[in-house]
Amino acid sequence: MKKSLLIALALSVVLFSCGGKTEHAEEHEEHTMEHSSGHESEATPTSTSRNMGTTAMIDAYLAVKDALVADNQAEAATKSEALVTAIQSFDAQAAESHKAKALEEAKKLASGDIAAQRESFQALSVAMKNLLKIAGTDRTLYHQYCPMYKNNTGGMWLSANEDIKNPLFGSSMLTCGRVEETISMN
Fold this sequence. Notes:
Elements: H1 2-17, H2 23-36, H3 45-53, H4 55-69, H5 73-89, H6 96-108, H7 114-135, E1 141-146, H8 149-152, E2 155-159, E3 178-183
């Protein structure tokens, strides 16, 4: 189990350092990598307590997502402060590179117009997904994907329910997207 986590961490670092790949290709490789070990990670008391530690981070992330869905730039900026604090206080250990990327993008949400916030949010979403897959989650989350974002290159986000409420477009394309993956408590 430890060897699989170390291999997963090493591959994650390599994927993030390779700038030429598309995000969707990285996600596919990570999905393949997770299943190459032959089993899902086992829940232990340690992983359960880590899952509970993600609560504040997930709550703050979802609050920013909801503000972007509502096209509310000011609220997204305000809510990002709690997200930055939650990410900073989370003990990531095995997922430190994902935590650093999430923190970098969360800080960008505090300023800029809503288009810049949405771009940072999309990058934050990738980092959060990767972090939560390693650290665990306290609830079921849905990895959602909109193929039309950023001139049809696509973008993703996490949601607490399956209904599509697109934070990357807000009211202009509220229901554009699909559920790509379910991330369950582990």
